Amino acid sequence: MTISTKKAIVIGATGLVGLALVEQLEQTPEFEAITVVVRKESQLLNTYKKVTQLVIEDFLLLNDEDVSGHTHAFSCLGTTLKVAGSKQAFYAVDYEINAHLADLVQDKHIHLLLVSALGANANSPIFYNKVKGQLEDYIESLELEKLSIFRPSLLIGKRSDVRFLEDLGQSIFKFIENKLQKPFKYKPVTAEQLAHTMVIAALTQIEAFKRYDNLNIQQTR
User: Fold this and answer.
1) pLDDT the model gives residue 3
2) What pLDDT does 4 receive?
């Protein structure tokens, strides 16, 4: 594959990680074009030269034609129970839309890169972790050209929505950050670190499937 043939499609592009990812893809020469799937047009995303916005009110309406022609599909889409408002609404975003994207890239020459979470486990008593685990299990069962799953811990960065517990965690982390220089399993990572790991995986991963845990994200250069 030549340097000019990599084309990305991104869902969740207006969130904390998604924006960091688009910024880094924009600066990565190997990617010549970036399609971002959004519910409404973003003026910020219009400032990127490589970006084309695909406006779809319901992401479940994304189809084969929309996805075809891309070499990489990135999902940074996720919410919280508080933001979603109910377990059903949370499941509809975190599981159903991500599973739909995976279904679309199945049997295509597309590398799928998915942001999951530390603690994802289909048998977890914690609903959030359970849904993330169920999604991972489903996607791993598909016939995919190449799959990368990323399991970050708490993400550091400025969000457009208010997430009290995550904001509290960020404040605590920044207070003791000078004591946490060495990598460890639960150390929070920045959105930029995660996005960088995703881009590196897109460019270098050889394996058909690889899971990147929180330590991998901390240590990627």
Assistant:
1) 47
2) 54
